[in-house]
Amino acid sequence: xxxxxxxxxxxxxxxxxxxxxxxxxxxxxxxxxxxxxxxxxxxxxxxxxxxxxxxxxxxxxxxxxxxxxxxxxxxxxxxxxxxxxxxxxxxxxxx
Length: 95
What we know:
Blueprint: H1 2-27, H2 34-42, H3 56-64, H4 81-91
Helix pairs in contact: 2-3, 2-4
């Protein structure tokens, strides 16, 4: 009988902790601007730091926050990255 009680207790604890974690994940969810992901996909992904930021994702976040110019990516200049970034910012209505 001890085993049955132990299994029931562990099941109830597991279920309650699972519900608590699901609630906490929704409550403390961090919303991210979708433009950051689109800009990261356009950047060359070299993470070289030539733009002055720690990597391509940090640079993309700075662009979206209007803290950096879209023309700072040196490896992407030849492929027209700055024009593509400007298009993303203009199409979203926030530039």
